[in-house]
Write a structure and sequence with these properties.
The complex is a heterotrimer of chains A (about 675), B (about 160) and C (about 190).
Chain A lengths: L1 H29 L2 H30 L6 H6 L6 H6 L5 H20 L10 H21 L6 E4 L5 E4 L7 E2 L15 H16 L1 H13 L5 H31 L10 H26 L3 H23 L15 H22 L15 H33 L7 H21 L10 H24 L5 H32 L3 H11 L1 H26 L1 E8 L3 E4 L2 E13 L3 E12 L2 E6 L2 E5 L4 E5 L1 E5 L2 E10 L6 E10 L1 H19 L24
Antiparallel strand pairs in A: 1-2, 1-3, 4-13, 5-6, 6-7, 7-8, 7-9, 9-10, 11-12, 12-13
Chain B lengths: L1 H20 L2 H4 L5 H8 L18 H15 L4 H12 L8 H28 L1 H13 L9 H16 L1
Helix pairs in contact in B: 3-4
Chain C lengths: L19 H26 L13 E3 L5 E3 L7 E7 L4 H17 L5 E7 L4 H10 L6 E3 L4 H6 L6 E5 L5 E6 L5 H12 L1
Parallel strand pairs in C: 3-4, 4-5
Antiparallel strand pairs in C: 1-2, 3-6, 6-7
Classes of the chains: A alpha+beta (about 675), B mainly alpha (about 160), C alpha/beta (about 190).
């Protein structure tokens, strides 16, 4: 009953989305606002509809209707309620429903804004977002329906169908398979929604970009409207990536946070394009340049979102272990082709009109450095694109499947990341328009000198690895530059207005949140880089089998095996849990409980490390093996992960900075004034 | 404090490396877990996607690690073991497949060339305007007396404040 | 391309369309990208061998040191079973496969081949002796055979008819000997 209801509502929502798209396009082409208005109401209607459908699915999940295939696959009786709810995005079809729900929420929110000054955009924004929405709803309805049920024919055959096959009755299923144990982690609960939020919210700037291209209103209006959307999208995507790293670190038990797995890279690619976009829109706002480039970037971001989804969901990436070959590949393929083709066509059509209003006047100006930043991001994107596609191409041409893993990515991207760090330490000090070696040098020399002192200290402390030294120097330099920028600003205000320094700093950040929030983000990035450098160059590990009471040594830490208990839990796991003590130079530090959970239902083992954290680094203990009955001996793998926690601290700082930068400005909500004080007179702008 | 930790870490890592480079292996007849993991780290689990063999927790991977141990005990070199694994399970078990190894050597050059090309393209598109920077501005229009950094900054800060209202 | 260099040079130039060759090039790039994507998709969408298609020559280096080539087996029905020692369902179907093999062995019209998918040799040999498997078995060197069939896991079993065409594929284990016979018998007619 509820399944039919949910499916029926989805079908209606799909029809509404298709109608909205058609009405919006018609209204836009014929210049008939009534049709656009109707499309707008249609768009607004999809959100409550999909909400209802999602609620029906959640109620099925909560009440254990295991005759519904999706419910059977992702939940089981022993799962706690919150996991049953989050199972909504624990599987392919459910996560598509969730995705559509977010998409319609964002699209509805954008149609609710005041459109007085941007009437001509409205139909096209609705058209793009409702076509995207209709695509995902169509996928659900025609190929990935989460409401499909298991039926049993009189002859005992099992059938999967939405409607009752003749003579068949619903299967009676007592318990489900349960959510993949790897996904039962707080990081995994919030990681997919954050990524999806990032993905769907990038649709909005894309929709405006297309609207600008269609209507020919190619000034920077579309960028000003979507500035905040872009930042929010980028923020969500970044949070999603950070959560994914944390999840990998906590759950996968291999002592790392990022494995350059193709799926990870597929999620990183839109982020790279998006990050380049976030930077280069500023040049267009300030200087009226890079209009074409911004169009290219937003189109790229949108299609990389779709492409990433295609890669991870169509089974292209994992052929040997894709047990359920999914049929959505060709549909995605067509969608990518159509959206890419239309976007490209529109862009080329409007190309001449997207001429820069100004020209680059200095190689050291901020816009020139931003351009360099964009180039580096594009290079990263190319590396990632190559890495993801190389195995597929290799298989195509040589028949041999190969793995592209960390060795390729680290050697290819390392210098590029370093280059970006360096830019982070130069660009904020250079001025828009004109910057010369002299002015730039004047601004730079103090933090630069201070960073050399730090470098000398690091060398004195015994670090000799050149790449690591470069990394440490870059980190300290960028931190110094950023702090220096804050201080200079606060100091200037302090001097002029006589405010005390802290107040001056507070006001400074409050008054130009975009700039100073941005610096905060930079600070987060370099702190995270510190963690990455620690892991990349100084991570050590050892493994050994020891009897109870004996110890393993690593980097001055002593890990002593105390005991091991093996027991079953009520939620269907067999747990082997060891107790180990960690000593540092003889002093007791902590008691850790590395364990191995074996999930009976899915026959999956899971290694959960025992971790002792500090700012200096983590001691990370994995239980690898043990003597089954006596438990007298056990094998442990121990990692020393120096500086890893700076990655998480950096992540938090990053998010905080992005929040500062994106926080709405209360008083000038819908239409930001055309910023009269900006670059005095912009010719070519009326 | 951080650098002190690092110093210790460095020294110990060095000491540890020295330790198992020398007599320990003589005492232990079978290769140690660390030696096995060092080889396994350069290989991928043949049945799971993208999981290095040294950290994979399935039973199959434990068997492969035992196999590495046997081969090491038999005196095989790392290269020979890699080749054996590639022959048995396909090239995808290699962290760096041969084709890619040669490609990797070219890679830094390729990326550098790509970036140079990008920079070149940018300069080419901007050549008109750049000429004005390199040739014209310094000679003809004497720039206005350069404001001190502080005054410039003050202006900027105040401008930001004005923007708000 | 030169501009009267002013402080902030404005750009006021008659709007010019892009040359056709640039537009063409852009779309060719897009089509090339889509073509690669399409090929990838096609290669995963359908395993290279469909039911009724000719199966290319399969060379199996058996654990006994002999080499079996399916081109030499024309005229016989070939049963190709993918297994591994670490695979639990494979243990379940092993006795059924062996007794089916023993049933057809005297007539010599059916050949059973075991393909050991990503396994270690000692474990594989232990598996074979534990279940007294007597038909030829060998490792899937370089996973070439399993990639040919694009197996999705083990166990999987493929049946080649007398002409060497793929007649049937079984994903997952057999539970009884009769299941296997029910597939082979029609092929012998």
């Amino acid at each position: 009953m509820i399944a039919e209801l949910g499916f029926g509502i989805l079908v209606i929502a799909f029809a509404v989305a298709v109608y909205s798209a058609a009405a919006a396009i018609y209204g836009g082409l014929r210049n008939q606002p009534a049709w656009a208005e109707s499309a707008r109401y249609g768009m607004l209607l999809t959100w409550p509809l999909i909400t209802l459908a999602a609620l029906s699915l959640i109620s099925l999940l909560l009440t254990g209707h295991y005759e519904v295939e999706y419910v059977y696959n992702v939940t089981s009786n022993s799962m706690p309620t919150y996991l049953k709810i989050t199972a909504l995005w624990g599987g392919q079809s459910g996560s598509l429903v969730f995705w559509s729900w977010l998409m319609s929420a964002f699209a509805s929110a954008v149609t609710l804004r005041k459109w007085d000054r941007d009437r001509e955009f409205l139909p096209w924004v609705i058209a793009v977002s409702s076509i995207t929405l209709a695509f995902f709803l169509g996928l659900i309805i025609f190929s990935q329906n989460p409401f499909v049920r298991i039926w049993v024919t009189p002859s005992g055959q099992q059938l999967l169908s939405m409607v009752q096959p003749a003579g068949a009755s619903l299967a009676v299923v007592a318990d489900g398979l349960g959510l993949n144990p790897l996904l039962r982690h707080p990081g995994m609960i919030f990681h997919p929604p954050m990524l999806y939020l990032g993905f769907v919210s990038f649709v909005i700037p894309y929709a405006f970009a297309i609207a600008a291209l269609v209507t020919g209103r190619t000034d920077d209006r579309w960028i000003r409207i979507t500035r905040r959307w872009t930042l929010v999208a980028w923020l969500f995507l970044s949070i999603g990536l950070f959560l994914g790293m944390r999840w990998a670190y906590d759950v996968l038990g291999w002592g790392g946070f990022w494995g350059w797995d193709a799926v990870e890279v597929a999620a990183l690619m839109p982020w790279l394009a998006g990050t380049a976009f976030v930077h280069s829109v500023m040049i267009q706002e300030k200087r009226g340049m890079m209009k074409r480039w911004n169009m290219v970037l937003i189109i790229l971001t949108y299609d990389l979102v779709i492409y990433g989804t295609f890669l991870t969901r169509s089974g292209v990436l994992s052929s040997v272990h894709a047990f359920a070959q999914s049929s959505i590949g060709p549909v995605f393929f067509a969608f990518i082709g159509i959206t890419f083709g239309i976007s490209l066509g529109l862009l080329l059509y409007r190309w001449p009109e997207l001429k820069s209003e100004m020209q680059m006047t200095s190689v050291l100006s901020r816009e020139a450095l931003f351009l360099l930043n964009n180039l580096l991001f594009m290079a990263l994107l190319v590396v990632c694109f190559w890495g993801v596609n190389f195995p597929l191409l290799s298989e195509l041409f040589t028949g041999q499947k190969v793995t592209v893993g960390p060795p390729f990515y680290t050697s290819a991207t390392g210098p590029l990341w370093a280059g970006l760090l360096l830019l982070m330490g130069v660009a904020p000090l250079s001025a828009w328009g004109r910057s010369t070696v002299k002015t730039l040098g004047k601004a730079i020399w103090k933090p630069f000198a201070a960073s050399l002192v730090v470098l000398a200290a690091v060398i004195a402390a015994g670090t000799r690895e050149v790449s690591a030294l470069i990394g440490f120097w870059l980190v300290s330099y960028v931190i110094l530059v950023t702090l220096y920028e804050y201080l200079r600003g606060a100091w200037a205000r302090h001097r002029r207005a006589g405010e005390n320094l802290l107040l001056a700093l507070w006001r400074l950040i409050g008054r130009n949140r975009r700039r100073y929030g941005g610096y905060f983000i930079h600070l987060g990035v370099v702190l995270a880089a510190l963690g990455v450098i620690g892991m990349q160059f100084f991570q050590t590990n050892t493994q050994g089998s020891i009897p109870v009471g004996s110890s393993l040594q690593l980097d001055g830490y002593t890990i002593t095996y105390r005991s091991l208990a093996i027991f079953d839990t009520p939620d269907g796991r067999n747990v082997a849990r060891a107790v180990v003590d960690v000593y540092k130079n003889g002093a007791f530090l902590a008691e850790l409980y590395p364990r191995r959970d074996y999930y009976y239902a899915s026959q999956q083992p899971m290694t959960i490390p025992g971790v002792r954290s500090s700012l200096g680094g983590d001691i990370y203990v994995d239980l690898v093996d043990w003597q089954p009955i006596t438990t007298e001996g056990a094998t442990f793998k121990i990692y020393h992960n120096p500086l890893i926690n700076w990655l998480w601290i950096g992540g938090l700082t990053f998010v905080l900075g992005a929040l500062i930068a994106a926080w709405p400005d209360g008083e000038k909500a819908p239409a930001p004034s055309e910023a009269p004080a900006k670059e005095a007179a912009l010719p070519g702008k009326a | 404090m951080r650098s002190a930790t690092l110093k210790i870490a460095f020294l110990l890592a060095f000491a540890l490396g020295w330790l198992y480079a020398t007599p320990v292996s003589a005492q232990q007849p079978t290769p140690s877990d660390n030696q096995v993991n060092a080889v396994a780290h350069e290989l991928y689990c043949p049945v799971c996607e993208n999981i290095p063999l040294d950290v994979c927790s399935t039973q199959a991977c434990a068997q492969w690690r035992d196999l590495i141990r046997q081969k090491l005990a038999a005196g095989w070199s790392t290269q020979k073991i890699d080749d054996y694994f590639a022959a048995q399970y396909g090239e995808r078990v290699l962290a760096v497949p041969p084709l890619q190894r040669s490609f990797n050597q070219l890679l830094p050059g390729l990326i550098g060339a790509g970036i140079l090309a990008g920079v070149g393209l940018v300069f080419w598109t901007l050549r008109g305007s750049l000429r004005s920077v390199f040739v014209k501005t310094p000679e003809s229009t004497p720039p206005p007396p350069p404001p001190t950094v502080d005054a410039e900054l003050l202006d900027r800060v105040e401008k930001d404040l004005r923007q708000r209202t | 391309m030169t501009e009267a260099p002013t402080d902030i040079p404005p750009v006021a130039r008659p709007v010019r369309r892009l040359p056709a060759w640039i537009i063409g090039l852009a779309f060719i790039a897009l089509i090339a990208f889509l073509a690669v994507l399409g090929f990838e998709l096609k290669s995963i969408q359908q395993g290279p061998i469909l039911r009724g298609q000719q199966v290319p020559a399969i060379v199996l280096n058996t654990f006994e040191g002999t080499v079996v080539n399916t081109t030499d087996l024309k005229g016989k029905v070939v049963v190709l079973n993918f297994w591994a020692s670490w695979c639990v369902p494979c243990e379940g179907e092993a006795p059924a496969l062996e007794s089916a093999w023993n049933a057809y062995k005297p007539e010599g019209q059916v050949v059973f081949l075991g393909v050991d998918y990503v396994d270690t040799e000692p474990e594989a040999r232990a598996f074979l002796s534990k279940y007294d498997i007597t038909y030829p078995n060998g490792p899937d060197l370089g996973t070439k055979i399993s990639q040919m069939f694009r197996i999705t896991g083990v166990p999987e079993t493929y049946f080649l008819d007398r002409e060497g065409k793929l007649a049937y594929s079984q994903i997952g284990p057999f539970s009884t000997e009769d299941e296997i016979k029910a597939i082979i018998d029609p092929l012998l007619k």
